[in-house]
TrEMBL record:
Residues 393-520 are annotated as: Regulatory domain. The keyword Transferase applies. It comes from Paracoccus kondratievae. GO terms for molecular function: 2-isopropylmalate synthase activity; acetyl-CoA C-acetyltransferase activity; manganese ion binding. Catalyzes the condensation of the acetyl group of acetyl-CoA with 3-methyl-2-oxobutanoate (2-ketoisovalerate) to form 3-carboxy-3-hydroxy-4-methylpentanoate (2-isopropylmalate). InterPro entries: 2-IPM_HCS-like, 2-isopropylmalate_synth_dimer, AIPM/Hcit_synth_CS, Aldolase_TIM, LeuA/HCS_post-cat, LeuA_allosteric_dom_sf, LeuA_bact_synth, PYR_CT. GO terms for cellular component: cytosol. This is 2-isopropylmalate synthase. Pathway: Amino-acid biosynthesis; L-leucine biosynthesis; L-leucine from 3-methyl-2-oxobutanoate: step 1/4. The lineage of its organism: Bacteria, Pseudomonadati, Pseudomonadota, Alphaproteobacteria, Rhodobacterales. Pfam families: HCS_D2, HMGL-like, LeuA_dimer. One of its GO terms (biological process) is L-leucine biosynthetic process.
């Protein structure tokens, strides 16, 4: 890097983000998201944890093969088999990177039961091993912000001496604060021999809501790589949100004179894609990408914005790829217009996909007065649910509800075989879910059932998210329709399809997330 103020963006949506319980993404979704991240200008994509499962390994390998500009990184614990497996997956990339880590704080040292000297030796051996395989090695002392400073300096020095090019400083439990975050990086740069030859990176979790502030403070302290995820996805309260740090650096360039290589107009499309793939709905008041981030409801605000947008807006919707004119199309719009509109929204569809979305668009336009951008996004995202490829497929649903009781008549395909059932329940959704359960008996528990309106009005589409748990595995399903009950059933069946796919994977000897990050 020649520009001393250039900050590298390291996206870990597909690794740390996907680690969030229930956020498991399919292979195709991961490839899609990686392609979008690459196009957006992300410098490094952490594509997964290859030793964790066959699925992770295959996804990282495929992403590596398809990568164009971004470096592709895989995660590995401080163990030779992990590092070898990681290299096998990332070696196909134009720019491969191995990221190896070990917990260095007193609490984390106790897990593998290593004393300080033994851990130092393990770091020396594993970083050297990784460096013998790959030119680009990143090393992380997990829980760095709760590690004794003298010991942190000692192990960082070892990693640098053994050839790590990037030293990532994780705030694993979201414990640090901005002043401390800047000071820690400054301290390492000042004290560790060889520090000026590597890039320091920051990796923050959001347990106290300070991840973005801590990451920016680390940059002030000398870090030149930020690790982050789209929508701040990640375990517990999540990771630093990519859109927040990138937009903060852009909007407040006057006081933070740093640059990134991100094309910010791609932010919104990625946010939508990640939300749909992970099943994690973006909260309406989420900074930058929330539905309300550019809405001005109160009279005073509207008046101000109409006179001069800068009165209440510090960035333009178009900066993040949001269209200003949100009225989309009507029932007379043709396929070419739909393709152009979707392209504007960040979706480049193949001919078959477009054909399918067009049919759904026409059906929606018949039922709904105005079709907005958000409706179109929901249509595209929904095109992947309840398809012919799914083992469980909803074919027909008829619901009776009201004061005389609720019941459902459901027709489903189970592995191609048609099944019909009548069920009653405590409310229409309960009746439908019971009908599904009698067609496809299962032990999965419903953890979350969430409905939100895509747009305004009583004819709006509803997006329903359903999260299910079965034997510790969690899967999410999402579907949209103007019929909330139908969307609910499709989302429920979508989650069951995902659980089945994961059960089948175990049967074939591979499972997502069988390996613990903490067993070193
Ligand atoms: O939070 C953390 O410490 C991590 C490491 C593996 C970098 O995700
Ligand atoms: Zn993390």
């Amino acid at each position: 890097m020649t520009d001393p103020n250039r900050v590298l963006i390291f996206d870990t949506t597909l690794r740390d983000g996907e680690q969030s319980p229930g956020a498991t993404m399919s292979h195709t979704e991961k490839l899609d998201i990686a392609e979008m991240l690459d196009e957006m200008g992300v410098d490094i994509i952490e594509a997964g944890f290859p030793i964790a499962s066959e699925g992770d390994f295959t996804a990282v390998s495929e992403i590596a093969k398809r990568s164009r500009n971004s470096a592709i990184c895989g995660l590995a614990r401080a163990q030779f088999p992990d590092i070898d497996r990681c290299w096998e997956a990332v070696k196909h990339a134009r720019r491969p990177r191995i990221h190896t880590f070990i917990g260095t704080s007193p609490l984390h040292r106790a897990i593998p039961n290593l004393d300080m000297d033994q851990m130092a030796e393990r770091i020396q051996q594993t970083v050297t091993h990784a460096r013998n395989l790959c030119d680009d090695v990143q090393w992380s002392p997990m829980d760095a912000t709760r590690t004794e400073h003298d010991y942190l300096c000692r192990v960082v020095e070892i990693a640098i001496r053994c050839g790590a090019r990037t030293i990532n400083i994780p705030d694993t439990v979201g414990y640090t604060a901005p002043q401390e975050s800047a000071k820690l990086i400054r301290m390492l740069i000042e004290r560790v021999p060889g520090a000026d030859e590597v890039i320091f990176s920051t990796h923050c979790h959001n347990d106290l809501g300070m991840a973005t502030a801590n990451s920016l403070a680390a940059v002030e302290g000398g870090a030149r790589q930020i690790e982050c995820t789209i929508n701040g996805l990640g375990e517990r309260a999540g990771n630093t949100a990519l859109e927040e740090v990138v937009m903060a650096l852009k909007v407040r360039h006057d006081i933070m004179p740093f640059t990134t290589g991100i094309d910010t107009t791609k932010i919104m499309a990625l946010s939508r894609r990640v939300s749909q793939a992970s099943g994690f709905v973006v909260q309406p008041n989420k900074a930058v990408v929330g539905k309300n981030a550019f809405l001005h409801e109160s009279g005073i605000h509207q008046d101000g914005v109409l006179k001069n947008v800068e009165t209440f807006e510090i960035m333009k919707p178009t900066d993040i790829g949001l269209n200003e004119a949100n009225i989309a199309m009507g029932k007379h719009s043709g396929r070419a217009a739909l393709r152009a509109k979707l392209r504007e929204l960040g979706y480049e569809l193949g001919d078959n996909q477009l054909k399918d979305v067009f049919v759904r668009f026409k059906a929606l336009a018949d039922r709904k007065k105005e079709v907005y951008d958000d409706d179109l996004v929901a249509l595209v995202q929904d095109a992947a649910t309840n398809t012919e490829d799914d083992y469980l497929q909803v074919k027909h649903l008829r619901v009776v509800c009201g004061s005389d009781g609720q019941s459902a008549d459901l027709v489903m395909l189970v592995g191609g075989e048609e099944k019909t059932v009548h069920s009653s329940g405590d409310g229409p959704v309960d009746a439908c879910f019971k009908a599904v359960k009698s067609i496809w008996p299962h032990n999965a528990h419903l953890q979350l059932y969430q409905v939100h309106a895509v747009t305004e009005g009583t004819d709006a589409q509803a997006t329903v998210t359903v999260r299910m748990e079965e034997e510790g595995r969690i899967a999410t399903g999402q579907a949209s329709d103007t019929d909330t009950i139908l969307a609910s059933v499709k989302a429920y069946v979508g989650a069951l399809n995902r659980l089945k796919a994961r059960r089948d994977m175990i049967g074939q000897g591979g499972d997502a997330k069988q390996v613990s990050m903490y067993s070193h």
